[in-house]
Batch of 3 targets.
Target 1
Amino acid sequence: MDAGPGAATESARYALVAVAGAGLGGFSEPLTYAIPADFTVEITRGTIVWVPLRDQIVTGTVIALDPPVPEFETRPLLGALADFRVASEQLQVAERVARETAVSVGQAAELFFPPAISSRAVELLRPSRQRPDDDLLTRQQAETLRTLETLREATPDQLRASAGKPLTSILPALIKLDAIDRRVIVHPHEPKREQTRQIRLTTDNPPELKAPRQKAVVSFLDIRRRAGIGEGWIDERAALRASGASRDTLNRLIAAGLVEQREVDRAAFEESADQTPTLTAEQASAWRQIERGLEAESPQPLLLRGVTGSGKTELYLRAIAWCLRAGRSAIILAPEIALATQLVRRVSARFPADTTMLHSQLGARERLDAWYSVANGDK
């Protein structure tokens, strides 16, 4: 991206950006930035972008395109998120929040951003085409610029490592002199695939083994093979628990060629341990009322009362199934994480590929995967 301050022409395009993190003591009004001609991400209302603000690179949300051509020098967009946009309805909410509270539109819109997007953004530096003469630079500035010219493009950390200096004041000075261009690349979100290891026998006629643990594993796998369940494949941990054997015992069987293993997606091969039970008369009566409520054009809240163990969760599960069949989605709220963990086991056993969980103790990657699965309509 070679557009720099003042590089815009009458044919250039501009974006009005609500900057996140700006507000009290900062910029509460949207700022105008130029859209570089070689920008690879389509910029629309709601696009999340990275922009220069003073000496920093900050995130923001495009709230309008092609405002009046500015009469002042503009700086370019540096990067954009390609796989998500803040929806028009969400921007309207952000604008209302900004009107009614002491925050900017950019701060309010940031509430709708995917978690930890900054961790996916990488700043890259490269020499500007409008390189200043060395006479206009200090010796250290000129050396740093020559190092960057050798690298062609580098992150700030890579440039510091090559220069052998912290460049604390040198880099900001070169950027201010327009000797260095910056851009931001944003790595696409790639969901972490949950893998599980499965095992099965490699022979229909396993030999008689003397070691008790090995014999227990082979016997268990042989029963599964003869039962025709899952073509003989079973989760490794389940097999070890059932046979009382260790991983070391299993490794010996694999080395001997009696057992084979494979890695598979957990969701694709997870076996449901939760079978749909027959409802009791009391449950059936409650379900008829719930179903009528789901079918109503203007649904009303329902209160399901019952002592512990009376079967309330089964009715929740049936309501979820009804919604999924109708092309809807469902959210279950639990009052605390401990209860949420128990509840999600029941729900994911009934709907193994359609369940995700969000709570405050999730790691950053787990939260991001869950967020995208919901935002994309996968779950």
Note: Confidence is low (pLDDT under 50) at residues 1-10, 268-273.
Target 2
Amino acid sequence: AMMLEVEGKRLDAKWITEDGEILDQFTMMKDIDRQENFQIVKGNSVKLEAAYIGEYHWSNGATTRSITVSPAEDTDYQVRDTHNCILNEFSVKLNPLPVKLIALSGANDGKNLVTLKWSTAFENNFSHFEVEKSPDAINFTYVGKVESNKNSQTTSIYNFNEQVIADAIYYNDLYYRLKMVSLDDGEEYSRIVRVNVYEIILGVEPPGNETTIEILPNPASKGQIFIRLVGQKRATASITVYDISGNPVWNQNMQLTNHAIPFLPKNIASGTYVLNVQLGSKSISRKFVLLE
């Protein structure tokens, strides 16, 4: 018997004997030599699929019929069959992100309030900015989001503020960058800016601030740590304690005096923390170590 198998644009013909043995066979395909062009926004991905059914050897090493790629620059891809009879070619070109960043700067106000400022020349179907931060200019983490004007042909000015607390324990410099995201989820990164921050040292306030809080002793054992006002008899304060990662672990409003009083619950684990005390419009930070 002769058996014909058809799948998509592939036909397989087989000569089969009475006992089921295939003595001869051949394959025919049509419209499978193909060249395709794609244009995507940088950061997006595109699916490339071979036009034929068979075995696949892609120029990037893949062996599946389709691959999904997100190149960082204009890139050409090829896929061939095992016998090198069929060739599909794909050209992926990147469109520029629909925004032009013309300025980016970062500064510290002297109290570790970091302000980033930037401006764009135009925006077309643009979505938002994501602010990212790093201690080493290599490993960045998300800090915040700033919505854009979506569509604008004139200069747009933006700013973003961050009060640096825990980060300043270890680093004198922080690095910031913007991830610019379009409405179709394309993305592109800005250059990196460096901002100097003041290290929060045990019992020492960043330059320019009068010392008005003391933590006693420091380091201290659990249940044996006290706080007192210096240069003032009494004040109502909002107290927040942050862990080493900058996460708040305890917050309370309390009356402080120039006499040392305990201020931490006993269930807080040992480790290094930053105490932030808000006295009216004045903000004071202290680093302290809690022992077992």
Note: The longest strand covers residues 113-123.
Target 3
Amino acid sequence: MILDSITLENFGLYAGRQEIILTPPSTQKPIVLFGGLNGGGKTTLLDALQLGLFGQHAKTSNRGRLSYAEYLSRCIHVHEGYNFASVSLRFRHTIQGNEDHYTLKRRWERNKKGCNEVFDVLKNGRLAPDLSENWPSQVDVLMPLNIAHLFLFDGEKIERYASPSESANLVGTAIQNLLGLDVVNQLDRDIRVLERRKKLELSDNISRLRISEIEDAQKKLRDRITAAKQKRAAIRTHEIGKRLRQLDMAEREFRRLGGDLYERSKEFEVALRDADDVLSERSEALCEAASGALPLLLVTDLLRSGAERDLEDAEITKALQMHDLLVSRDTAVLKFLKSMGVEIGLLNQTKKFLDNDRANHRQRGDRKISLDLDKETRGEITVLLHGGLDDALKSASERLEHYQNAESEIEGLRAIRDSIPEEETIQGVIQKRNNLKEEVEALEAKDARLAGEINLLERERERGRRKIEMLYVL
């Protein structure tokens, strides 16, 4: 048996029609390997192969205890408008040198009563109704269900095949199934049923009546369990599914209208008030900078000119002080020279030199003092011109940048606030969304109650089964 292709339509993760070629490249390379990230659809593909071959008897990965109809409904791609799915499998099989081509087509569609499947088998391009009716027995000849896991398996489970502790059991079970030894187990179960029937025929009327009553109760329990499961399947497949799709549409409409912003409107109002407070603080910081040395940056040249004038005033003051000192010094020098008996000519020359020197100092001191700054003012001007103004400019620039950032943040928050929809615009969608959430919760609670009811019924049914076994033993 050679698999050639599988075609999926709206199946699981696969939306639309997807055809995958499975024909091996050669007889020396008969294995087809699929790789991909988790959630990429590898297991879904294996499930589709199993489902295409074995139908309701397929051992798929995610069916669990679901009914076949419910499982088929869940296999339909979760997208608005998709109400059907299909799996089509093509393969070849050779018997006594004759190669036949088969196509298996399974298609199912949701309806008010649940989910119905249509299954067709084509042999060599022609419909084969006899094969369609008897396919479970026919496929058991081509690929027995009990050994299908040896040919169609998930690579994530390959560790089990390589494990010494588990591989023996797996291979042993597969060989038993391949040789048909599992029929012995089925025969054993059939013999037990036959023994029970014989014991029932030989038992007294009271026991037969009691067993009959329990079996009738068991049948009613089975009917109740089946009805509850069908009801639960209808709730999960149709009602909850429908509400979830409607809820998804309401959520998308809610987001389109700006519902996310609406829900956070109070948060934005608080953020806007905080941003206003920050802007006010940074405005005060700018005013504080303007009240200090910052305005003097406008008169930097004037400050430098004043500093130069102050230096000139210092020189004038120094010249006047020097003149007064020289008067005393020159008088003392001339007096000393006379006492030493220096001749009159040299004494006169010395006096002339000293008079000229004092006159020069006096001339420099005769200029007018412009500013006459005190020591404290002179120190402040020096500090400003040697780094103070630069520091003031740097600090003011930083404060201005912080202020502008706060302004930008407020503008952004105001833009968001202005884009928040009015309550009357979005209230209808909010109400619809809340109503759908409540309906989904109510349906899920109903589903949970049905699950609990089914569990109780199955436990009651198990107790009845044990009672029947005990009566058979007696």
Note: The beta strands are 2-11, 14-21, 84-95, 98-111, 114-123, 126-127.
